[in-house]
């Protein structure tokens, strides 16, 4: 039997499971619920939190796993923005996490992987008037989850504005964590004050998130459950890291974003993808025990 497997089963929705036997690693993906990874077992340890009830409910926002944020991260004032003189409504974190993704293929040669695709539709154009195609490959190899992303602008003439990101929920024993990053400042959305970052933050009692403002190295490492440590590395296009949690829930979200919340209204750091263009990006999650 190959050390790499891709299986599927039904648990409310169709789930694809990527397996690497040699590292006791398993990744669970649900294409029809926003293309989300709902489980991430690396080197024998499940590192993702999942509120199963929110996953099972067809219209609930999933609390857990690793939701895909596109074409925006975060919120817009009044859930509204104006583009080319027209007003649009956009739900928090965009359209990808609530859309059904299609499976383009799976692979067990040298890795266990699945490639999924989301294409623009009349439903997405109600809030985001661009033709696009997203192609994501989740690959499990050497006990690491690699998320290979392709953002395609299929609009005939216009550049496509967006700022994508991820919202992974990590199982933790504590809200006070030390983060290995070279960031020196963060914006605290609880009081809208910019503060020095000294390497440790306590999210206990915080309602709103904080954003690490100036990391240069595109990596961050932090402790999770059972004394393990998660390391995320990502491409330069992800400029910020957002930290967030919920009181009395055993998770901390550590979220690489391309721009800060509300950017589609400010329009200062938008990624503008030319007509016919493609942006390739990567995010890797590993776990040391």
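-> sequence recovered:
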């Amino acid at each position: 039997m190959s050390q790499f497997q891709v299986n599927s089963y039904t648990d409310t929705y169709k789930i694809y499971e990527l397996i690497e036997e040699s590292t006791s690693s398993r990744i669970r993906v649900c294409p029809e619920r926003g293309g989300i990874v709902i489980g991430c077992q690396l080197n024998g340890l499940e590192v993702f939190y999942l509120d199963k009830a929110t996953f099972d409910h067809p219209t609930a926002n999933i609390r857990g796993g690793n939701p895909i944020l596109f074409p925006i991260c975060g919120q817009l004032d009044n859930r509204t923005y104006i583009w080319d003189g027209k007003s649009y409504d956009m739900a928090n974190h965009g359209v990808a996490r609530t859309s059904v993704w299609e499976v383009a293929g799976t692979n067990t040669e040298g890795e266990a992987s699945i490639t999924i695709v989301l294409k623009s539709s009349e439903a997405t154009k109600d809030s985001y008037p661009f033709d696009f195609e997203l192609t994501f490959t989740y690959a499990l190899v050497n006990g690491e989850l690699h998320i290979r992303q392709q953002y395609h602008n299929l609009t005939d003439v216009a550049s496509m504005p967006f700022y994508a990101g991820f919202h992974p929920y990590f199982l933790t024993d504590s809200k006070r964590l030390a983060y290995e990053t070279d960031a020196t400042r963060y914006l605290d959305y609880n009081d809208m004050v910019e503060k020095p970052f000294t390497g440790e933050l306590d999210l206990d009692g915080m309602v709103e998130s904080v954003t690490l403002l100036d990391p240069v190295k595109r990596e961050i490492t932090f402790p999770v459950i059972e004394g393990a440590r998660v390391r995320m590395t990502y491409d330069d296009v992800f400029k910020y890291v957002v930290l967030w949690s919920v009181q009395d829930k055993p998770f901390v979200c550590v979220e690489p974003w391309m721009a800060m919340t509300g950017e589609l209204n400010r329009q200062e750091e938008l990624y503008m993808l030319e007509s016919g263009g493609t942006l390739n990006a990567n995010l890797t999650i590993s776990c040391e025990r």
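The longest helix spans residues 52-56.
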